[in-house]
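Suppose a classmate hands you a notebook page containing two proteins, each written out with its sequence and a corresponding row of structure tokens. How would you begin to make sense of it? This section walks through that situation. The first entry is reproduced here exactly as it would appear on such a page.
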Amino acid sequence: MSRDEMKNLGWEQCDVIIVSGDAYVDHPAFGSALIGRVLEDAGFRVGMIAIPDYTDKKSFDVLGEPRLCFCVSSGNVDSMVNNYTANKRIRTEDDYAPGGKGGLRPDRAVLVYCNRIRETFKTKPIIIGGIEASLRRFAHYDYWDDKVRQSILADAPADLLVYGMAEKPIIEVISELNDGKDIGDIKGIRGTSTKTRGLDIESFVELPDYKNVSSDKRAYALAFKAYSDEQDPFYGRVVVQRHPKTIIVQNPPPMPMTMAELDHVYGLPYTRRPHPSYKEEIPALRTVRFSITSHRGCFGGCAFCAITNHQGRIVQSRSKESILEEVRKLVKMPEFKGTITDIGGPTADMYMLGCEKQAKYGACQDKLCLYPQACPSLNKDHGRLIDLLKAVEAVPGVKNVFIGSGIRYDLAMQDEAYLYHICENNISGQLKVAPEHVSKAVTDAMCKPSIEKYERFVKRYKEINQELGKEQYIIPYFISGHPGCTLKDAVQLAEYVRDMGYYVEQVQDFTPTPSTLSTCMYYTGYNPYTEKEVYVPKSVEERKMQRALLQYKDPDNYDLVKKALLKAGRKDLIGYGPKCLITPARPYSRRR
């Protein structure tokens, strides 16, 4: 991170310099650190410029000019999601910055960083990647601008984009640069997008161009479906989209990593600590320092989740031996107090699951694995996951092994032995699950199971804990303001919360982030898969009302809740009866 460190290593020049919007934490949960270790392992000298002062171009020259290229990422989070709430208010904190200080990462960080680099290094190749670049690789609706923006590769003075989980493609790209190849001649590598003035490829899928998708919402929806259908490594084709000054070419996704490849990546010598130059804590490290990634990918297919277009639907798992080796390293750390906070991935209970067809032919194009019902071909046996948990629990020095990343409850219900095991051993008093909503119209728009399945899970969960003599709770997550959710649906959810008997704090306002089906529906009011129109709560007032209904007990929400109930024709819920949400008179509010 400094010239002094380069001097101590005997380096005159870095081969690759990674620029990131996150603080430098040498932990595999931090994407820039992981890519840095992968490049180092491949024999390259890697420098890191973390949270540069974007107002000063000299901040991008602290390590000099790299021999091969710059690699630019906004960090673990899209900078707009990181900097703004769902209601577009500026966040004052940033968990990925020293001391949690907000405001250090610019809006649209990838664009800003690339522009600053190009001001000083006129011709040095720039490769962009990470979640912000990956999910903006085609023309996309931007919630914060409330318009369709060009591909980030068309906007940024970058040469190439690496999308998804980048270990394999980034090594290929950097190796070709190292062999003397010009960045403009590097084409056809899986997991990369390039830009060109003319097409010299024979077979490809062409999306409606930028002019069409930015002016015609139906064209946008069809373009979204077209490129989403190509995001499988086995049958995905080259996808092309024309922009005013360039043509974006996306190569097919990289093939899934083998178990040996994944083991190798997570077996690299991470210190799991922030860079020693930091004097303040990095808040994001608290929850992940003693967590372990067991797998990647998710076949859940939730409409609001971008994992399908980033990690993919095919689950790739590490070996038990690799995970146990990582646990033994954790035990030796002085800070370790005996608790593994999580073993999981996007969904904790998908370790080693999937189906044989996926491994040979890819995920099905015409149906989802879990919605509306679990596919009969899906392997639902959690036996190897139970075996893994037992092995980790038996490692000397480990006192507790918890599941912090949440489970897919409809999948867990398929294996009684797994449910028993986690209830007995792996829950720290509370289990996170995400029913998201109760209205069938909304759960269908989300591609989520019906609330009846959640209720069956809750019933069985309580029975098992009663048999075990444990008092453990479920923390349900709900989303307000999702496409398909009318005010009446929001009232229905509020009534469900009322009947649960306890106050819900975990409420997420739907935020339209790039490259999700839900965002496509939010912008267009149309579902390209069902070919039906979808109601979208877009006004600021209605979004606030839907959220307030879920937290109707908060006195500060009284006016919004009352207005929502009257507008929905539910005056019966205003009164003093046991089923009423609010009283006719305003309650006392501390703020007021």
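The notebook's second entry, a different protein, reads as follows.
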Amino acid sequence: MKKIILSTLFVMQIVFAFAQSGTGVSGKVVDSKTQKPMQSVIVSVQNTNLMQLTDASGKFSFDKVETGNQLLRIRTNGYKDQLLQVEIVEGQLLDMGPIALEEDLTQEKQMTLISITDNDLSDDNSGSESTAGLLQASKDVFQQAAAYNFGQARFSVRGIDNEYSNILINGVSMNRVSDGRPQYSNWGGLNDATRNQEFTDGSKPSDYSFGGIAGTQYITTRASVYRPGTRISFLGTNTNYSYRAMATHASGMDKNGWAYVISGGRRWAQEGYFDGTDYAANSLFASIEKKINDKHSINFTSIYAQNRRGKNSPNTQEVTDLKDFKYNSYWGYQEGEKRNSRVKDVEEPIFTLSHYWKFNSKTRLHTNLSYQFGEIGNSRIDFQKADNPDPNYYKKLPSYYTTLYTYSNDIATYTPDFAAAEQAKANFLAQPQMDWTAMYRINNENIANGSRYVLYEDRTDDKTLIANTILSSQLADNIVMNAGGSFTKSKSANFQNLLDLLGGTHFNDIDTFGTTDDQQQSDLNNPNRMVGVGDKYGYNYNVNATKIDAFTQFKFTYDKIDFYLGQSFTRSSYQREGLYKNGYYPDSSLGKSEKLNFDNFGFKGGMTYKLTGQHYFDFNGVYMSKAPNTKDVFPNARLNNDTTDNITNEIIKSADASYIIRMPSLKARFTAYFNETENTTDISFYYADAVSLGNGEFVSEVVTGQNKRNKGVEVGLEYQVTSTIKATAVAAYGEYTYTNNPNLAIHADGVTEDIFNGKTYMEGYKQAGMPQQAYSAGLEYRDPKFWWISANVNYLSNNYLDVAPLIRTSQYITESDQANFPYDAALSASYLAQEKFDAFTLVNLVGGKTWRIKEKTLGLFANVNNVFDIQYKTGGFEQARNASYSELYKDHQGPTRAFGPKYFYGYGRTFMVNIYLNF
């Protein structure tokens, strides 16, 4: 056995020359441990159209291979790729005999990945996961580093948001209409069931869709493609959950043409890594396929993944210094148990019926009908005629008292109250968490007039129907066509749902910010309502969307050059339907809005020039437009039917060029890229003090016509030093900036005209939320006795704070500023400078071991991330509450800022141990 394994590891450097009749190569693929034949393994001759799947006995045979040195690539999910150098001689058939594939133990990274998407720190009321990037299934060394080493620091490949990617399950897009992003929780905890993946980097051609500039990830759940067997696993960790149990069974195709896969998992934690972040998730999966005949198969897939998790708060530096970076203000004790007020709850099952039609050996048609429904809720405290219950509310912190100013005859004087600041500090440290007991007490004291505090959720109930079809046809020996069409119909119901009266009997459905009786009514058709648990209140509306898209793609393969051309067309239609007649907007809130239609086109192309059989030049380019997401079309969708002024399609331009080396011992990729997006829209809501002639207002901020540019280089190197030692090196250098001064509109409910409408000076500022430079070096030792260990060192830098557009407008300086706070150019520059986070280094250790016990495989996989427990910021944002020079001046006077930036932090030292059994 050991000789077989060693020969397999060294075979990358062996030239085979065993001659038989014919001109070509044949062989048999077997499992290195069991020596059993492996079916449906992909065998291809590089730089040709020659590709086969091994048959039931593991055999393959090519009888028309060009003479000379060739590279034979053998690959399948769950095993290490083999790249074998062979010499083809005219009139001779090389019989390579048994070729042993070794289980890819490093794929346990994909199977056990605990990603930032699950702990998505920045998502508050959003429906989808606003994460850095895809969970790459790619074996490219750079993509592996981006997913597993850099991902813990919210690294984003090329700085592109995942709304510009395309996630497909059986060809059906999982990107949501509301914000363009996938909801990873919809299939979370089903790592075994979703392991059959293909990843297409950037704008490169995908067989399944036109794709986006952040890549295409295709997940297939067709029952017959799973390796038969059973797998059970148990994982322990100290990240966003503590434990995970999973079990999966795949039957394989039986003699009657039936195959099925079932899988289930549970993840849970009483408290995750950050304080008060409980976690509970249950996942179920079933896929069943019936092979009708050699041409037709039908597959039905059902996915149910329920996820409930407590969130953690972003905090100012003042709060972090008073507590620590794990501090979370969202929770408090209730009858001795921790209770989090901010909980995200996702429950959206997916059902897909697929038909696979093989016309002949060259043409296939794959058709899907998918239906998804369910709910996403984001809870929080609502309160009326009562103090803000958040323990780190700015008036409860020392900085509020150390930044006080008083005015006499319009002259401002700095009057800090340090005694009150010390008392505020003592009070905060004595009661740093949410006081549930006090809220229940206050509600009980006001039982007749209704609860002062309640727990509610911002709820989204989506229903989505998708029908699509994908055609693949080999038109000629060197031409392949891919084409597809899709129809999407979705209805998104959005409302506030009352969860808990916190000891009260009812809650008054009024808006206390309203200055008139009418403005205080959420629904003038049902004024002064008293609502209870399970009732809708506050806002209630639907967004209906229809989307039609189609694409074609042609791939051409020749001896020295391959190239492709792709085209796409998309039509998107959106309409809001208000179900409440809102008191602020009695004439524009109830009923249906105008229907907005957006037509978009895309064109892309690329080529690969084969310098030799091991050296390539690769080029890709795309020009496309993209419809705005529904959340950007309706800027105040909760209250009215208004649409964003001058909103239009985004324009996306992208190009990349790569030099690629593929040798048995060395794999390398050097890539330069350029991406530009124009006419993007961004909408946010917050309370701002320095607006509306100095009077504070709760405002909506709409930024339109924003342009972004992302450029940089990527390097990935993988070198097989010996048969057991592999070295890797990865580098990413990027510059991600805003390239223009877009328009900014500030609007407040009850105010007829925009508070501000003009330019915001954003040109030159950096895009925030991810490191723009990342470097990694690693070593891996893989022992012939089926154990391995690797270590890598990762350096990440150039991560920036998200700046507030309102601070960078013509209203930044006012006449009152000049009177009380003479303008100081140096101070102003420091206030407007974008904060750059400190660089940091993370050391990770990963290892695994498998044992063969009769017909079973027992495996252990473990890692320790951030070995030296480095504390680092992953992101943050400026507060726009104080948006003028004078307000910023006052906020900087004390030892700490009342309205300083709020930050997110990464994990410190974490571990994960996973044990699994395959049989």
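A careful reader of the second entry would note: The longest strand covers residues 453-476.
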